[in-house]
Amino acid sequence: MAQSGSTFKPYSTISAGAGTSTYLGELAASLPKALVTLPRYNLTVGYARQLTPKLAARASFTWARLVGDDYTYSLDNPATYAFAYVRNLHFRNDVKELALTGVYNLVPDGHTANRRAAYTPYVFAGIALLAHNPKALTPVDPYDPYTNPQRWVDLQPLGTAGQGQPDAKQLYPLLTASIPVGVGFRYKLNDQINLGFEIGVRYTLTDYLDDVANDDSYPDFSNLSELGILMSDRRQESNAARHYGNPDRYSILFDLMDTNQTPFETIQRTAPGESSGTDKYLLTTFSIQYIIPGRVRCPVPRKR
Questions:
Q1: Do 69 and 27 touch, CB atoms closer than 8 A?
Q2: CATH architecture for the domain at 11-291
Q3: Residue 90 class from Cβ within 10 Å (0-12 exposed, 13-18 middle, 19+ buried)?
Q4: What is the pLDDT of residue 1?
Q5: Among 6, 125, 129, 182, which lies 20 to 30 A Cα-Cα from 300?
Q6: What is the pLDDT of residue 264?
Q7: Model pTM?
Q8: Which residues contact 156 (CB under 8 A, 6 or more apart)?
Q9: What positions does the domain DUF6089 occupy (predicted)?
């Protein structure tokens, strides 16, 4: 605890960590379900300056892989998630995040780094710059899967929902911002090392981490390239692109059509009310933090 009459001495830490990343948007509208079906991973490094016993400023860089897949999300219950199963979209996005956050300790430090609290819960919030680029796998070629293999392609230049066409939205930017907020816990292992864990949500300012916005529909295909058409409308593919060799989708598709009496053509790129607001992602991170030693003052020799 901070000592009365003592002047707090600010100190700095550097950190490195890793954990999970989970996307939440049109292709995964339920966070509990997304946590168990589509988690991936993140790596992060950071620098923090403890300014007062309770307040710190932190800069961090995080690389996180985000994934969404209608097939994986709906496979355990295609009847309940018929819309997603029929739509059959997916994406992968390697997000690069540069964040500036304020950290508020719920337990204050002592007046030096060595006297910091042994157990420190904290909250944080800030702003981040986000670079992203959604990709997807090309369809399985049923006639020539070996000499014409699948490949990952960038989705934004293809205008899969008609972006960039006359009288349509502009192509979405690949550089945007997000608002990180969350909670964490720090444990003092020794005078120089902390161990940490935190969980935080990133509220982005884009609805296109997944290349699908909540008001998208299938565009006029006459204005799309051949590849753009293939990547935009995947309703009638016999296989889910990320699961080559999966049981034939058609058998379940036709069962769904018979049960719901819903033709393929009525399934759009997004369902009304499927997702509200912009895309989000959740990061959990385990980290190790090193206390940068303060300047050591050498004693001045006395004159004889």
A1: yes
A2: Beta Barrel (2.40)
A3: buried
A4: 46
A5: 6
A6: 66
A7: 0.89
A8: 133, 134, 163, 171, 172, 174, 208, 211
A9: 18-133, 177-218
Question: What stretches in the chain show pLDDT beneath 50?
Answer: 1-5
CA dihedral 34, 162, 229, 152 (to 10 degrees): -50
Domain residue spans of the chain: 11-291
Residue-wise DSSP of the chain: -PPTTPPP--EEEEEEEEEEEEEEBTTB--HHHHHHHS-EEEEEEEEEEE-SSSEEEEEEEEEEEEEEEHHHHHTT-TTTTHHHHHH--EEEEEEEEEEEEEEEESS---SSGGGS-SEEEEEEEEEEEEE---EEEPPP-SS-TTTS---EEESGGGTTTSTTSTTSPPPPPSEEEEEEEEEEEEEE-SSSEEEEEEEEEEEES-S-TTS--TT-----GGGS-HHHHHHH--TT-SS-GGGTTPSPHHHHHHHHHHHH---GGG--SS-TTS--SS-EEEEEEEEEEEEPPPPPPPPPPPP-
For CA atoms 23, 19, 291, 188, the dihedral sign is: positive
Estimate to the nearest angstrom the gap between the alpha carbon of 298 and the chain centroid.
48
Digit-coded pLDDT (tens) for 251-286: 788 777 766 666 666 778 887 666 568 999 999 999
Q: Which two tokens stand for residue 232?
A: 């935009």
29-67 per-position pLDDT tens digit: 888 899 988 899 999 999 999 999 999 999 999 999 999
- The C-alpha atoms of residue 134 and residue 95 are separated, in whole angstroms, by 9
The count of other CB atoms within 10 Å of the CB of residue 1 is 11
